[in-house]
Known about the structure:
It is built from eleven helices and 37 strands. By secondary structure, it is an alpha+beta fold.
Amino acid sequence: MPQFFSPLHAALFALLVPLIIVYFLKLRRTRVAIPSLALWQQVINDQRVNSPFQKFKRNILLLLQILVLSLLVLSAMQPFYPGTEANASKLPILIDCSASMGAKDTNGQSRLDLVKEEVSKIIDGLQPGQQLTLIEVGASARRITDFTDNKVLLRTALADLQVSDVPSRLDDGLRLAQALTRSAPQIESVRLYSDGNLPTKVNPSTGKEVAAVDFDLSFPVDFFQMESAGANMGITAFNARRSTTERWDVFVRVEGSEHGATSGKVILRSNGAVVSQETIVLEPGESQRLVFTVGTNEAHQLEVELQPQEHDSLACDNRAWLTLLEGRDLDVYCPADLATFRHALQSTPGIHLEPDADGASKRGNYDLVISDDLQDRLRPATAYLFVNAVPEDLTSELELRDGEATIVDWKRDANLFQHVQLKEVLISNVAEKREGITDADVEAAGYEILAHANNGPLAIRRSEGLKTTYHLLFDPDRSTLPYRIGFPVMVSNLVNETMQQASLAETRSPTTGILPALQVTKSQTFRITKPDGHHEERESDEEGILLGISAPLVGEYEVREAGELIDQVGLALLNSSETSLKSVDKIQFNEMAIEATGERPTTDQLLWRALAVAALCLLMVEWWYFQKRPAGVPD
């Protein structure tokens, strides 16, 4: 049964009264002399027609005008069919725009397209006083509209929503919604549209997987899950390891979804030329690891492409890129007076150590600098280790003093101290904290404390852009550390970390989200062209580093300076969860869980548009009928 927004609009029907009164008015006829009384019968008939209530007989024009006016009045009254959903005054709508929402079915329709169709119906059914806000959830949450009832604005924002090739961060969207519920008490619930492809954990009570969200839910959430798009296969890992001085081993992992068996061809290209290709067949939920080999005698721009042979729901996980540098030794600078470090370095293969026996240094840039002189930080390098020296910006907090010290604790998961046992190491000098200084003061200067002695920090680390600096705040030669097996292991850890930073030992394909930090010219403006053709300009810092560039799409990004191409970086999805298209219909929060609802609540269906269109059509019919040329009248 249709309902009316406001019964007060019924007063508009009073407009019918003046319309009818017009037809009550009698016609004024001109007196004319006639030659015969035979025409009086026609005059009598005319008089009868002009009498009250007789005028309605056979008066099509009046009936049409009454009908048109009635339709217009009904349209102004805004009748509607009531829906099953309560009309909340303010409704936040979270829309999942992660990579899996771009999965397309056999009809070419993505999950996001389905969401847009449902949200469009909500927008069309907005009543006066109702407002929506749309929130995009991808790698982060972004509010794309304020609370508004402007249907044109809402439709435009909804149409502009695009899938980002990144995993979903539902926590961020819920936190944003929570902030809205606190500032707007009119919000009764929050609506979430997603395919359910979220990080999962096993529910111990049921043994089933549920989406796990580290969030305390303080408001009702209506979870509407999109149906699956079908089978999919994609690349979930692409990395390389330098196995020998002459060979890179390249690893590619391909996974299939649980929605059906998949097959395809994997093609590896180097610098644009095909290196190898293999055909793979995967059972539902199966994965396969492929190994390729390339030489270290030249640099390689690798691209791996997956060509599915059947319907593939997701296209963004079918390509990945990887840059391999030409094989070389690690350039290390270590002065001759640090004999213990030089001895450990000389026994490590793949290292070019300077200065040489004659004290000469031929390199202008190094990968690693180990020194007891802080002035050596002026030597360009990607990693530094300073021993027995307090950083200049910590001299007011720390002071090197002689005295016995023992190591109390250290971070065993730190790269420098992995598999290093520092217990019972004796030290005869150490950096002590000055009076009133705490560990928080050291950390406030940008340093991370890696090891503590009984009277102060022993090892600290600081990262600045692409550079990592370690400080051992004691003299290793005045300790028992060089005589323990942990010392060469520590040096080996430092070398391995530096080789990783220099991409000389192992490297992996960068993933979407943020463009990797790039070493470029200092304090210059660069133009970054994204795979979709959009541009972004960014200025490098004083260290010549480009940081924080948003990269939400799979593809190759071009970096140009003054129009000249200086670098090209390919980013891939490489996410097993997104490729699997695995979805859950239950989200487990910290204290409660919500389940996806299969029934979609309907909104109020407005009828005024249909009534207004009907009135317009009827008006056109009336105009055509009374303006057409009568039958039998010649042109």
